[in-house]
Specification:
Length: 239
């Protein structure tokens, strides 16, 4: 049976969980203005409240979380064959892709500026959290049996945006990731910034720490990255 827990200190009194819940589990405390799981027995475990909570202070427990089957590439190929339709990506021209890249570059720069202005020195938390949230949309990585296989799956998945090689040290559990080419580096270069040290790069490095922490169930801390022609970062396990 699903259970709901709320860290009241983190509640912003936004009432979003109350508004979105399809079974009316939540009330808003009239005095404190915070959310209360007033009818927990009515929870169906849809996790809508958990995903919409801006403070991430709400958690739905005792449920079986399903990974998005349709996003696994092998399964997508089966569906395409069954429907006898060519994926839309195969119909994109080189001009379409170049236009999309230019649009993404503008949006990424705007994102980096906005995060820095809003979060200041706390922008690294945004990158790490983004990695953890993105992990749910890359379910095939969870099929990896060990760290090496997870890294290989990531290398294959992101081959269109950048290429990298990596090594893991068994003695201390550190992971080294070296980007041989990176689309993000081209974006920051056009702004006159140094790859590996620009704000977007820092967000991206934390993004990777979040991804690997989620896929391996091991929390990693980011050591100082190295910029230059070949950007590198190192991750070390933490308790």
């Amino acid at each position: 049976m699903p259970t709901v827990s709320i860290e009241t200190k983190g509640c912003r009194s936004c009432s979003l969980c109350h508004d979105i819940c399809p079974t009316d589990v939540f009330d808003i405390d009239a005095t404190e203005g915070i959310a209360i799981a007033a009818r927990p027995g009515d929870c169906i475990g849809c996790t809508s409240c958990e995903y919409i909570c801006p403070s991430r202070c709400l958690k739905v427990n005792d449920i079986e979380r399903q990974r998005p089957f349709h996003r696994i590439e092998e399964n997508a190929n089966i569906v395409a064959k069954f429907l006898q339709q060519t994926p839309i990506t195969s119909a994109l021209s080189a001009e379409d892709i170049q236009e999309a890249l230019q649009d993404v570059a503008v949006r990424l720069n705007a994102l980096g500026d906005s995060v820095t202005e809003t979060m200041g020195r706390g922008n690294k938390v945004v990158g790490r959290r983004a990695g953890k949230l993105s992990a749910a949309h890359l379910p095939e990585m969870y099929e990896g049996r060990d760290l090496h296989e997870v890294l290989e799956r990531l290398r294959y998945r992101f081959a269109g945006s950048f290429s990298f090689h990596s090594e893991a040290t068994s003695a201390d559990g550190r992971i080294g990731i070296h980007f041989d080419s990176c689309a993000l580096a081209n974006v920051v270069k056009k702004r006159g910034q140094e790859p590996g040290r620009a704000v977007l790069c820092m967000l991206f490095h934390e993004f990777w720490a979040g991804l690997l922490s989620e896929f391996t169930h091991q929390q990693y801390a980011l050591e100082a990255p190295h910029g230059g022609p070949v950007c590198s970062l190192r991750l070390k396990p933490r308790d």
